[in-house]
Amino acid sequence: MKKRKDTRPISEKRADPTSDLWLNKADKQWREYLHKKFNGCIVCGQSWGKLDCHHIIGSAKHLTRHHPLNGVLLCVHHHKWNEKLSAHANPKEFKKFLSEKYPENYNFFMTKRFIRGIVDFEQAYHRLVDLTDKL
Question: Domain coordinates of the chain in residue numbers?
Fold first, then answer.
């Protein structure tokens, strides 16, 4: 089913912490935070070219979508294409790698992957701005 476009005035969207306006701002800030935190692919260290922000718990789960521990930075190769170690092409090996090299992120995944709820995207955005500024 196609989602309806939000036609409310910007002032109403700004007042609604669950609006797409705040979702998009939080998405952008989450990506900025990961780029600043990791500075390159966590597998190979590549810091040039296209780097992808990977959600450890899928982005459809809004409650964990913008959590700082729910993301890592990967080169395109290790994000989607490497059959030996890739978040999408070989998730089993990727989770093993994560558990060994980034246990805090892995433990977040293991403990939060089934939680559900409604999230305040505005609050998530402001929390990420603060965290990014501290890096």
Answer: 30-121
Q: Cβ distance 42 to 94 under 8 Å?
A: no
Structure tokens at 36: 């600043």
- Give Dmax (Cα) for the chain: 48
pLDDT in tens, 96-130: 999 999 999 999 999 999 988 888 999 999 999 99
Which residues are CB-contacts of 80 (< 8 A; sequence separation ≥ 6)?
A: 52, 86, 87, 88, 89
CA distance 15 to 37: 30
DSSP per-residue letters across 24-76: HHHHHHHHHHHHHHH-S-TTT---SS-EEEEESS-TT-TTTTT-GGGEEEEEH
Percent of the chain with pLDDT over 70: 96
